[in-house]
Each structure stands twice: as C-alpha cells, then as structure tokens.
Amino acid sequence: MNELTYLTATELGTWIRERKISAEEATRHIFKRINSLNGKVNAIVAYDEKGAFQAAKQADKEIGEGIYRGPLHGVPITIKDSFATAGLATTSGFPPLKGYIPQHDSAIVSRLKQAGAIILGKTNVPPLLMDMQTDNDIYGRTNNPWNLERTTGGSSGGSAAAVAAGLSYLDIGSDIGGSLRVPAHFCGVLSLKPTEGSVPSRGHMPGFEGTADYTSSRHLACYGPIARSIEDLEMAFSIISGGNGNAGLPHGPQVLPPPLKEQPLHIRWMEELPGYPTSRAIRNQLRRFVKVLEQQGMHVEQVTAPPLDARKAWETWGKMIDAELNSTTPPLIRGLAHLMTMPIYRQLPTATMLIPLTFKNYMRVLTIREQLIRSFEQFMADCDLFLCPVSCTTAFPHMEKSKMWGYKPLYTKPLYVDENPQNYWAATTFYTNLFNVTGSPVVTMPIGFDEQGLPIGIQCVGKRWRDRELLQRASTLYATFPEWRAPAISVEPH
C-alpha cells in the first residue's frame, strides 16, 4: 500500500473521482498509518475518527450520485491546531485552552470542507505558535520523521511532520516569521507562504474571543498549505484564497495568473546573509541546484548584498510584532521589560520593542515597512524569482528552552551551524522573516540532503500578488530535481 500512502492529494482525489478507491478506504488506510506511526512522531494530536468516516461515506455517496465537489473530494487531510474546527479541540498549544472546542469552523476549514476534504484531525504546535520547535504541555513534543532526535521546526511542525511521514495528504499551516517554511525545510516537504492578505485569517487562534474588542496581529501573518507536490500547493491555494469570509471570493490580481514569458527564467540567488552564514551542506546543495538550473538554460545571477536592508527589516518585524501582540501591556511593565532585555535587542534585532508604543510611532514603523516593500519590489522588477536558504542549518537536535518570558521561550545556549555558535532565533528565522516584512509569496521546496541524510530546502520568492505565477515558476524549477522522497520512519508498517 506504499503507492497509496505517497500519492499526492491531487492524485488521490483523481483516484476517488475515478472510483479506483473509495474515500472510506483511503480514510481507513490513513488511520491505520496514524495508529502505527504517530506514536513515534506525535504529529497529529486531536482526532475525529468517527466524524472522518461519516464524511468519507458521504463523499462516496455523492460520487455515486454524480456530485463532485472538487479536487479534494474525499481526500483525508489535517489542519494545524490553531484553526477553529467545529466540534474538534483547538488549543494553539496553550494550556489554558486545553479542552476548548469551538462551535464554528475557520474560513479556511469551511472552504476545505466545501471542497469535499475529509478532516482527520489537528497537528501539533508550540504554545501560542511562538517557537521554532514544536512542543507543548498539552500534547508533548513532535519529532522529525527523518530523525526522531531532531526537531521538526515550528510553529507548523506537526503539519510538516504529518505530511512527510505519510500521515496526511495535505495540511494547512500559518506563518508570521517562518512557521510554514522552516518546518517544510526541516522535514523535506513543500509549502506556500502566500502574499499577505490573500488567504483569510478569520478563525485562526480562536478561544480568545472577548479579550479585546479589536483584531490584533493584522500584519505579517500568512496562511498556506504544506504538501508533497507543487501541484497540491496550487490546488490548495485555489481553494483557500480570496476574501475573508466563507464564500471563496476572488481577490483582485489573484484571479488569473499572468501569462508566462517565453524566454528562459531570470533567477537571482544568494547563499548567505552577511554575518549569518549557512551550513556548508546548505551552501553546497544550493550551488548544485543553481548549476543545474543554469544547465537547463535559465539566466542565473548570484547576488552578494541582501536585496533590502536586512537589519532594518528585522527591526521592523520586531516592532510590528511587539506593537500588535503586546498593545494591552501597561506602559510601566513595557518600560521595565525594555530595560531588562536590552542586551537581547542588541544581539537580536527581531526582538526590538516599539518604545514608546504610540500611534505616531506605529505609523512610522508601517511607513518604514512600505519603504522596504518598495525596495524589494524594485529588486524583483526585472527578474522572475529570488532563491535563498530557509535557515542557517538543517534540522537540529531537540533543544530545551532556558526559561519563559511571559509566553515567549528564551534560549541562552547557542545553536551550532557547523562548528560556529549562533543565536537560536537568528539561525532559524533571519532568512524567513524578511519576507513577512515584504509580504512576498514564497514557495519552499526540498533540493537535497546534508551528510546526515537530513533534508535541505530553499525559499523561492516571487512578486507580491503573483502567487500563481510563483507556483508555476517553482514547478519549472522543481521539475529539474527528483520528486519528493519519503523519510525512513515512513516505511509501511507491518
């Protein structure tokens, strides 16, 4: 049954439509795998087996009546445990929300159900999605299916592990600083971080209703699929994108992809940011990949200077996060926190606070962000794609946090990149949160492995609001390398 396990979601949907297999059979198969393998990986943390089989039987009944909802009709998938799912626990990894069961679906989940998807369960996250490892006091730690002693990344770590291990055909995650891209890179799968605003946020991180009469976290966050093929990314994006309600409304320039140019792709790439070198394995694989693209006739151009002011972008990211997530903290406490943690800010610009937190200062930060967006768009104006690493290293051994500062984990021990110690947050997120600041769409895809057999992915960055064009371009690149590969943990259970 290995063939069935590693079908893409699109392929399985075709099999179900053509009645090569029933949705009920596919659901039974995937639950068998979950029961056999999930204990080791701990990717899926909340199940709805009864509801999944009921939905599968309904999907089969509709197929028999000639009703076909779309490419996900009857396909079993999972959802990150930060999206509201009616009748199914949704905790965001946060102990006060243990046992919280929303009575509504998020906009994304509603659209997936309307498209015929079968929701198997929820995938694990760190508390409040605030770490680049996936572990919490409700469900425990998620392990990388390539090496159980290694992290999956975060915060969509359960999502990436489930798809990589063949425990789900598709998952939807979120990303405010790398949470789709780092887990995809660490687990050897693909992800799409769409253009900011192209996929609805309604119903993400529920359970806090009534704590404020406004919506915080309005910027930087994006929501997108994790899959085993670019075709699945394209299909999922077509279902979940548009508007901010339940109707799947088209969203401006996303309606149709621009026509592809006939001439070879013009690609710019960078192997590392000054001061934050990537591992030798990542550099070598990226060079090898670029060489293959060049041999395919693509116009490849290496750049050594960042395409925007990186430090300014990191500080902007930190100030925006601080302003939007910590706006209710009393000024005195904010001032004390700023003084006590000043040494951290000097080393880690993404931890910069917005002091004082005033409307005028917040508008200044948004203005700086607009300048950074324009700078990057000018860089992208005469090229098709920008390629760069996802993080400084491949999946690293599980690390214990030193302590918690409120809801934020602190790591005082360094993360080693080859023999060189680096700050934990810098090594994991400095390459990714640049593109949350620019709002750019990014496809992350595997291009090889390090000497320990751990996956290596790259970021393929496109132009804002050109997500479908990016997916088409990335598909061209991905076709030059072998297809997705299953990790050792994913062997068919006996």
Automatic annotation (TrEMBL):
- Which InterPro entries does the protein's record reference? Amidase_dom, AS_sf, FAAH2
Mention any Pfam family matching this sequence. Answer: Amidase
Protein origin, superkingdom = Bacteria
This protein's GO cellular component annotations are: endomembrane system
Q: Where's the Amidase domain?
A: 25-471
Which protein, by its recorded name, is this? Answer: Putative amidase
Q: Which organism is it from?
A: Brevibacillus brevis (strain 47 / JCM 6285 / NBRC 100599)
Q: What is the lineage of its organism?
A: Bacteria, Bacillati, Bacillota, Bacilli, Bacillales
